[in-house]
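This section describes the prediction task in plain terms. A model, or a person checking by hand, is given the sequence of a single protein chain and must write out its three-dimensional structure as a string of C-alpha cells. No templates, partner chains or ligands are provided. The sample shown here is typical of the held-out split.
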Amino acid sequence: MDRLLFSWLGRTDLRAIEEADTVGTGPVAQAVDTGRFSHLALICDYSATEAQAYLDWLRQRNQTPITVHSVKLDSPTNFDAIYREARRIIAETLKARSSPPELTFHLSPGTPAMAAVWIILAKTRFPAELIESSIRYGVRSVSIPFQMAADFIPDLLRRSDDELTRLTAGLPPAAPAFDAIIHRSAVMQRVVARARRVALRSIPVLIEGDSGTGKELLARAIHQASPRCERPMVTVNCGAIAADLIESELFGHEKGAFTGAISARQGVFEAADTGTLFLDEIGELSKPAQVRFLRALQEGEITRVGATRSIRVDVRIIAATNRSLSQEVSSSRFRARLWLRQAKPGRGGRTPHDLSNRKPLTVTRRVKVPNRKGLAIHRNRVLRGAGATPPAKRTQGAARPCDGAPKENDVEPTLSKWRKATVIAPKVAWREHSTGV
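The expected answer:
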C-alpha cells in the first residue's frame, strides 16, 4: 500500500546542503532515508532557486519520487494561509490517486504553526500518522493523546449553544468589570445586564440612588467595560465643591480670571478628554453651572472661566445623584433641558454623540426581607404602648428611618422598621439610552 509523506521544506533542510556536519541531513532527508515512504509531497514557500537546489541534492541521495508544491505565504506563522494551502494540496493529491494511500505528516520541518496545522488535519479531516525527526533520536512516531472530534468539538458546539442562548435572550457579552458588583436576585441581574449593554456605547448615563448604594461602583464598572477603558476616568463630587468654584473646577480658568487665579488651570472636562467623567451628586449643581454644563453636553465644547475661546472635548458623561431629578425639575431646582439632555437625550435634540430618540428604561429594585432588628423595635414600641403605624399604611418603596445608612457593597442593606421592610439595594432609577443602531 502506498505511504505518502507530506512535509514542509524547512530552513534546516536547506542548510543541510552545505552544513551537513553541523545540522545533519535535515528532517526531510532523514525521514526519506528510512525507506518507509513510497512518495514525498514537499510543500515549499522558498524561492524556486532554493527549492531546486535542495531537490537536486536530495535526489542524489534517494530515489524516492518527489512532488514539489510551491506556495506563497504572506507569513510563515499565518495559520489561516498554512491550513488552507496544506488542506488543498492533500485533497488534490488524494483525488489524483486511484486508491487511498496511508498518510504521514512530518512535524519537524517548518514553523510551529505548520506543525500545529498538521496535528489539526491529522486529527480531523485527514487521519494520518505524525512523525518527527532529530539527530539524536532519529525518526519516530508522535502520539497525540486525544481525538479532537471526540474531545473538543462537543465543547465547541456547547459554547455555540450558550452563545445562541445569550443572543436569543438579548444579553450582552460577559464583562469582567462587573464582577465586583455582588448580587443574587434576578432583578439585579437584569440591572447589571443593562449596564453591560450601555457600557459599550459612548452615551450619557444617569444613576439615581440613595447614598451608599454603590452608584460610583456601578459607574466604574461601566467605564471599565467600555471602549474608553484605557482612557482616564475622572471623578468629581459636585456636592463637595463650593458654589463659587464649581465652574472653575469643571471647566478650568485662565490666569487672572478671578482673585487668586495666579495661573491658568484646566478643568475636569479637559482632564477627562477621550475618557469618562463621573459627576457624583449632579443634583447639587448651581443654576449657572447647569447652564454651562448643558452647553458642554450639546456642543461638545467648553470655555474656561475668563476665556473667550472654546475648547473641543470628547467626554462620556456618567452622572449620579441621591435625588430624583424629575422631582427637582418639577420644583424648578434643576433645569429641565439639562435633565432632558442627561436623562432623556433626543427629546431636546441631538447630543455630541448623536443620540437618537429612544425612551429611557427605568429599573428599581425593591426586595422584602426579614429584619429581626426592625421587628424587635416594633415589639418594644408596642409593649411600651407607644404604638406604631401598621405596615399596610406604609407607602411601598418610600424612604424609612433606619439605624444606619446602608454601606456600599452590602449584599442586602435594609431600611429597618418592620419584619418585611422595604429594601432598596440599590434603589437605582437607571436610565440608559442608545443610538438605535
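For orientation: The radius of gyration is 35 Å.
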